[in-house]
Amino acid sequence: MRVMGVDPGLTRCGLSVVETGEGRRVTALDVDVVRTPSTMPLPERLLAVWTAAEFWMDTHEPDVIAVERVFAQHNVSTAMGTAQAGGVVALAAARRGIDVHFHTPSEVKAAVTGNGNAGKAQVTAMITRILGLQKAPEPADAADALALAVCHSWRAPMIARMAEAERRAAEQKKVFEQRLAAQRRGRGHGGAGAGRPVTGGVR
User: Fold this and answer.
1) How many Cα atoms sit within 13 Å of 85 on the Cβ side?
2) Could you tell me how far CA 135 lies from the centroid of its own chain?
3) Would you name the residues annotated as active-site residues?
4) Is 7 annotated as a binding residue?
5) What's the pTM?
């Protein structure tokens, strides 16, 4: 499975592609950071992120996209920029029929380091070790993009099992509701006089 990890942002948007192997083995294929200056108009910044994302998708042909979910940030403008950048990446993926999965920062940190509150330095160090890189990826956005891809690679089997369980639960619920509706219709078709005792007799 080929996974494209995206650490969304307007000033810096990290992009990565990894490929899964046997067990938990993951190989890094590419990583880069798209930069846009704050002086550039917002539509042009989003276009730059979208164009880069489309190029990566067309070049690497990933099976799935892993994007960081905006969970909570004190800086509202930063959170908005992150969400907007993630949105255009998801749009580019949707146009190509590529599945998109969102992971929170704590999920990524927990998957890579075992600690959902790990710092960026720890994440970078673990990603360097996991992928067997000769040097740590820079800047941190590149390491985060790789961490997202690795996180999804390792969580994918669990996500698939959960999706299958939800699908089966939905099917069972539908069957139960159909049976319940049929029983109600059956009771309603008994007729107005059904079940009433006969009164009176021959005089």
Assistant:
1) 29
2) 28
3) 7, 68, 141
4) yes
5) 0.77
Give pLDDT tens digits for 115-140: 999 999 999 999 999 999 999 999 99
68 is in an annotated binding site: yes
What is the Cβ-side half-sphere exposure of residue 138, based on CA atoms within 13 angstroms? 3
Helix, strand, coil percent content, the chain, rounded in steps of 5: 55, 15, 30
> Strands of 99-103's sheet, edge to edge?
26-35, 12-20, 2-7, 64-68, 99-103
> What pairing do the DSSP bridges indicate for beta strands 99-103 and 64-68?
parallel
132 token code pair: 């067997």
Residues 6+ apart with CB under 8 A from 99: 63, 64, 65, 93
- Asked if 18 and 28 touch (Cβ cutoff 8 Å), the reply is yes
